[in-house]
Amino acid sequence: VSKRLLIIDDEPDIRTVAAASLQLVGGFTVISAGSGEEGLMKARQEAPDAIILDLMMPVMSGRETLQALKRDPALSCIPVILLTAKVHGVQQDEWQHAGAAGVLFKPFDPMKLAEQVSVILGWEAQKEAGAR
Amino acid sequence: VSHELRTPLTSIRAGLGLLAGGVMDPSTGQAKAMIELALNNTDRLSRLVNDILDLQRIEAGQLIVNMKPVNAADLMRHSVEATRGLAAQSEVTINLHSVDETLEGDADRLVQAMVNLLGNAIKFSPRGASVEFTAEKSGRNVIFKVRDHGRGIPPEQLEVIFERFAQVDASDSREKGGSGLGLAICRSIVQQHGGRVWAESQPGQGSTFSLQIPVARPGNGEPHRRMSA
C-alpha cells in the first residue's frame, strides 16, 4: 500500500508538479490543499502518512499551520516536511525544534523529490512508479 | 524577491524535469498540460525579471534620459492604445477625457506609468464595466485620474500597494498576470518627474489612482512635442 502524502501550498502549479513528481516517480498517493486552513481540514479527514507544507502562504502561513498541526493531539504525530523558496533565514535546527521533520527547497528536482522525502522520513523509497 | 522568482522557476524546473525524466508519455494530455504549465510560468518569470530590471534602472536614474516637452493628451491617447487589447479581452470600456497641456518629461516612461494604472484598472474591473481616464490642470500640475469600478482597496493597503510585491491579495500575481512591481515602477517614474501618485478607494465600489505631473515651465513648453502616432 503506497504512503499517502498531503501537500499544502497556495500555488496551484507547485501543487501540480509536486504531486506529479511524488506520484509518478515515488509511487505515493497525494492529496492537495491550497491553504493552511484547508490543509488542517484535509489532515483531519484523510490522516495522511506525512505532510509537505509550504512556508510562505497568505492568511495562514506555513509557520502558523505547523503550530496548529503540532497543537492538535490528533495531528501532532504526522511528520511535516517544510517546503520553502527561501534560501536564507531557514535554519534546519530551528524548524526541527518547531516540530518539522525536515526542510526541502524550491526549486526541487522532480526526479529526486520522492527520494528526498523518503530519506527525511526514514521510509524505504517506493520505487514502483505509478502509471506511465 | 527570492520567493517571487523561485516560485515560477520551481514550476518550470519540475515540469520540464518530469518530461525529461521520461515519467510522462509525451503524447498524453498530462504531458501537454505540463508543457503548458512550464510555458505559463516562463511568461510569469519573464514579466517579473523585466520589471525587476526596469525598477532597478529607474531607481538608479538610468532610464530618464529624454526629458522634453510632451503633450498630456498625446500621452493619454498612447496609453489607451497600448491597453486596447487587454480592455477588449476583458470587455472593459475606457472613457477618455484628456486635457491639452504641456508637461516636461520622458514620454515613453510617462506612458509606461499610465499603462500600469490603466492595466490594473482593467484587470480589476468586472466584465462590461468602464474605466474613466481623465486629466485636469491644477495649479502648476496636471492630475491624471484612472477610476475603476472593481473590488476596491482596503484603507490600510492604500499606501503599501506602491511597495514591491505588496498586492492586496497574494493570488493577484498569478490570477491577474501582474508581477507585483507595476505600482512600484509607476511611483518611481512619477517621482523622477517631480510628481506623485496616490490611490483612493471605497472597498467594493472601485478605486481611483491619481498621477500628478508638473506642467512645463514657461519657455520650456513651446513648441509642443507631439508624439508620432
Features:
heterodimer, A: about 130 residues, alpha/beta, 5-stranded parallel β-sheet, 5 strands, about 20% strand, globular, B: about 230 residues, alpha+beta, 5-stranded mixed β-sheet, two-stranded antiparallel sheet, 7 helices, about 45% helix, elongated
Strand order within the widest beta sheet of chain B: 2-4-5-7-6
Largest interface: A-B, 28 and 28 residues
What composes the largest sheet of chain A?
A: 5 strands, parallel
Q: Describe the biggest sheet of chain B?
A: 5 strands, mixed
Alpha plus pi helix count of chain B: 7
Straight-line distance between termini of chain A: 18 Å
Going across the biggest sheet of chain A, name each strand in turn. 2-1-3-4-5
Order of helices and strands of chain B: HHEHHEEHEEHHEE
Question: Regarding quaternary structure, how should these chains be classified?
Answer: heterodimer
The proportion of residues in beta strands of chain B is: 15-25%
Number of helices of chain A: 5
Beta strand count of chain B: 7
